């Protein structure tokens, strides 16, 4: 009788050992939900608790989605192969928060599912967000290694490329529903554009070359400049503010924090970590090389034993 395989625990690595990295990230993806539960228990969610849950879970859904997409670029930029183990956890976290985001919206409408459907159909930003959630369903359902084996690597990868249009739709949804400010939506759009550009560059020159420090710096400069121009374009289209009034705010440090500053800070953090890790990774032998070194003494011993015999 074959034992039924247990689901892998999120804090264990592929060898079944406790991973500090995965444990920290697992705690990180749970933290926003636990904080919302605490606020609900203490009655501090405000006069419309479902709307607060809806807003917060939607925010974390798109954050985790973009972070999951950033795993592959960062894996190459930072020379940190173990980051690949985080992609599934982050993707499932994004899906879970997106589902709660929709459920909370239904709760705010008094669980009137007919009204929920009519609102989703009537409001374009809700339609876009709902389509993005529907597209996440097959990705979440096929996220296990067992499904990858059953589908085959080529078909599985083709299906999971849907995550890029999902990210685009989620970014548009987030931008359209933002009413109080557009700083974070612009930042999210800039990060999504950065990840898309990296993927296009990797497809053209290869992931290793796209992950060099020089390529990272060039992409960062392009995205920071594009973020400033994008913010100016938004205010020009929205309220008719001329570029000459909006663009200089990126150099006026007494004004509020601009989206381009946030993207610049993220870029500098990525580059700083890369500058530290690349020399370390260059000195560290690869696992394949370590396996080869470990195999040589054994073969040498066998040869000596053969001669002695």
TrEMBL record:
Function: Part of the MsrPQ system that repairs oxidized periplasmic proteins containing methionine sulfoxide residues (Met-O), using respiratory chain electrons. Thus protects these proteins from oxidative-stress damage caused by reactive species of oxygen and chlorine generated by the host defense mechanisms. MsrPQ is essential for the maintenance of envelope integrity under bleach stress, rescuing a wide series of structurally unrelated periplasmic proteins from methionine oxidation.
Top-level taxon in the UniProt lineage: Bacteria
InterPro entries, A to Z: Fe3_Rdtase_TM_dom (IPR013130), MsrQ-like (IPR022837)
Domain Ferric oxidoreductase: 57-170
Complex formation: Heterodimer of a catalytic subunit (MsrP) and a heme-binding subunit (MsrQ).
Name of the featured protein: Protein-methionine-sulfoxide reductase heme-binding subunit MsrQ
Record PANTHER family: PROTEIN-METHIONINE-SULFOXIDE REDUCTASE HEME-BINDING SUBUNIT MSRQ
HAMAP family assigned: MsrQ
Residue stretches spanning the membrane: 20-38, 58-77, 89-106, 126-146, 158-176, 182-201, 213-237, 257-278
Name of the gene: msrQ
Pfam families named in the record: Ferric_reduct
Cofactor note: Binds 1 heme b (iron(II)-protoporphyrin IX) group per subunit. Binds 1 FMN per subunit.
Family: Belongs to the MsrQ family.
Its membrane topology: Multi-pass membrane protein
Cofactors: heme b; FMN
Key words, A-Z: Cell membrane, Electron transport, Flavoprotein, FMN, Heme, Iron, Membrane, Metal-binding, Transmembrane, Transmembrane helix, Transport
Main subcellular location: membrane
Cellular localization per UniProt: Cell membrane; Membrane
């Amino acid at each position: 009788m074959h034992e039924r395989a247990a689901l892998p625990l999120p804090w264990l690595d592929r060898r079944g050992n406790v991973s500090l990295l995965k444990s920290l990230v697992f705690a990180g993806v749970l933290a926003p939900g636990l904080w919302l539960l605490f606020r609900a228990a203490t009655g501090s969610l405000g006069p419309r608790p479902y709307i607060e849950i809806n807003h917060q879970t939607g925010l974390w859904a798109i954050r985790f989605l973009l972070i999951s997409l950033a795993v592959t670029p960062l894996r190459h930029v930072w020379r940190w192969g173990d980051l690949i183990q985080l992609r599934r956890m982050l993707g499932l976290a994004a899906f879970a928060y997106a589902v709660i985001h929709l459920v909370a919206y239904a709760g705010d409408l008094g669980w009137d599912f007919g009204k929920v459907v009519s609102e989703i159909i009537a409001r374009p930003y809700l339609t876009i967000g709902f389509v993005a959630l529907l597209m996440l369903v097959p990705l979440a359902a096929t996220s296990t290694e067992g499904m990858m084996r059953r589908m085959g690597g080529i078909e599985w990868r083709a299906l999971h490329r849907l995550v890029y249009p999902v990210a685009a739709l989620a970014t548009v949804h987030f931008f359209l529903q933002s009413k109080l400010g557009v700083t974070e939506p612009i930042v999210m759009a800039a990060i999504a554009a950065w990840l898309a550009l990296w993927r296009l560059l990797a497809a053209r020159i290869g992931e290793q070359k796209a992950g060099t420090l020089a390529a990272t710096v060039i992409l960062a400069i392009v995205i920071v400049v594009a973020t400033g121009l994008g913010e100016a374009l938004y205010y020009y289209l929205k309220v008719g503010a001329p570029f000459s009034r909006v663009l200089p705010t990126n150099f006026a440090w007494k004004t509020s924090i601009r989206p381009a500053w946030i993207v610049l800070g993220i870029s500098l953090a990525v580059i700083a970590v890369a500058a530290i890790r690349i020399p370390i990774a260059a000195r560290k032998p690869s696992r394949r090389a370590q396996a080869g070194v470990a195999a040589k003494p054994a073969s040498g011993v066998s040869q000596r034993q053969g001669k002695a015999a």
